[in-house]
Amino acid sequence: PYPVYEKLRENNPIFKIMFPNGEFGWMITRYEDAVEVLKDNRFSKDMVKLFGPDQQNIFVHNMLFADPPDHRRLRGLVQKAFTPRTIEGMRSHIQQIADDLLDNLDSPDKMNLIDEFAFPLPIIVISEILGVPVEDQDKFRLWSNSIIDATSDVPVEVFEQHIQEFTDYLNAWFAKTRVETGDDLISQLVMAEEAGEQLTEEELISVVALLIIAGHETTVNLIGNGVLALLEHPEQRDLLISKPELIHNAVEEMLRYNGPVEFSTSRWASEDIDFHGHQIAKGELVIVALDSADRDEQKFKDADVFDITREKSPHLAFGKGIHLCLGAPLARLEGEIAISTLLRRFPDMQLQEDVHELEWRPGMIVRGLKEIPVKFK
Ligand code: HEM
């Protein structure tokens, strides 16, 4: 998408688009405009408030689709579990998970990086935090993939069936948790729901689904897209191998250069808004293209160059403003551990096929490869 974004940033940075259903929306591609929209509360996330209560999708009753004050309440309920300090305490455990996965590969000289490593690592971690069985990870993947890719080739019936299965699964799990409460995050949320006031049953299911989906759909692509960037830039890979202490910077650059989130940062105008001379009408969708903003030459010098020594890069991969990614400390730690462990154990890792043969996932919400087959000696 990058050449298209570049043209838009140059010629049409606040771009009015018509969707197939005839409705109008806007696409924001420059960095400064993106920050402005993300920080302006007139661009609302609350679909229910804007479009009425009969939203088909049960998964919108969470912080990502809420405005203040509901947003603060819903985020506050889970915030403690994701602070940098709490997350740092998980470092050695996450390292253990990464090592175990690489100790148990199907083959000694090759792997499918997504299936065998980049996907299981974050799903194991978020399942443990929430207290859901890690063995159900394939179900979570199936359900959340079809929700995330729903804008593309998933038939409506399959999408609806998966939503139903996911909802039934979570409801059954909550029922079990009510009887046997543990010290995991779901237990805390179930108790908050039972105590009344703090969150409704609908919100409970929606918040947990969001954490499962957001907890792995993006980090898998941070690891996958990050490894791809290193394999495409062998001099950067060699630099990182010789200076492992660059890993923190390297992950920030991977997030900027090949960000995992493409279009999910959408908002709706809650009133008529004059945005730099463009008339955005109440109810119109505004899409902030984070991947484009992060390649904006006005903000980043040599924006198309992948440079892991880039310092203090204020990229937007985790968004900005009140919805700034809650899981950013966790995603960063998982990314750093995953990439450095891979490089330490398989410094000669290579793609099994030509990079142009790799297939990207459909849909516009996340940007990541379906599979990354790699080999090593
Ligand atoms: C929000 C990106 C990993 C949980 C967001 C947003 C972005 C984002 C761009 C803001 C969306 C918007 O403003 O509309 C990413 C990326 C990740 C990642 C690139 C990995 C590299 C995670 C993880 C979790 C998580 C591991 C697990 C807990 C959330 C939640 C929100 C969110 C709960 C909603 C926050 C709110 O609305 O206040 N993420 N995310 N994310 N993310 Fe992440």
UniProtKB/TrEMBL annotation:
Domain of life per record: Bacteria
GO MF, one annotated term: heme binding
Keyword set, alphabetical order: Heme, Iron, Metal-binding, Monooxygenase, Oxidoreductase
InterPro entries: Cyt_P450, Cyt_P450_B, Cyt_P450_CS, Cyt_P450_sf
A Pfam family that the UniProt record links to this protein: p450
Family to which this protein belongs: Belongs to the cytochrome P450 family.
Record protein name field: Cytochrome P450
Organism: Paenibacillus radicis (ex Gao et al. 2016)
